[in-house]
Design goal:
With about 120 residues, the protein is mainly beta. Helix content is about 10%, strand content about 30%. The protein contains 1 helix and 13 strands. It has one helix at about 35-45, and strands spanning about 15-20, 20-25, 30, 45-50, 55, 60-65, 65-70, 75, 80, 85, 95-100, 105-110, 115. The strands form 5 sheets. The chain has a 3-stranded antiparallel sheet with strand order 1-2-3. The longest helix is centred in the middle third of the chain and has 13 residues, at about 35-45. It is elongated, with a radius of gyration of 17 Å. The N and C termini lie far apart (about 40 Å). The model has no long low-confidence stretch (mean pLDDT about 85).
């Protein structure tokens, strides 16, 4: 059985396909094989920071300029260190998911950060 047929959450081999989705009967997780392949391709291409350094899950980055938080009056100041980032599919350009102290969970564009 290929890895595409194993559940990415619990690694169960009992996953089955239902129309366009794969379903895991053990944990209830559903995923699309095409979406997973696109995410793998994005990770292989690599997400790079403003200086061209490759980023990976769990890295720490520093915000290089003040960023307004959409829908709020808060601002992420330049020089803010963000720990334990997660890379994600960049359909809208926001390819970093993170938590920032005092603000909370948010997504960042890799062009506004540098590797710490």
């Amino acid at each position: 059985m290929t890895d595409a047929m194993k559940c990415p959450t619990c690694n169960s081999e009992h996953a089955y396909q239902d129309r366009g989705l794969w379903v895991c009967p053990e944990c209830g997780h559903e995923w699309s094989g095409a979406a997973e392949a696109a995410a793998d391709a994005a990770h292989e291409a690599g997400v790079r920071d403003a200086n061209g350094n490759a980023l990976a899950d769990g890295d720490s980055v520093i915000v290089i300029k003040d960023l307004k938080v959409k829908g709020s009056s808060s601002v992420v100041k330049g020089g803010t260190k963000v720990r334990n980032i997660r890379l994600q599919d960049a359909t809208d350009g926001h390819d970093i998911a993170c938590k920032i102290d005092g603000i909370g969970a948010m997504n960042l564009k890799s062009e506004f950060v540098r590797k710490a």
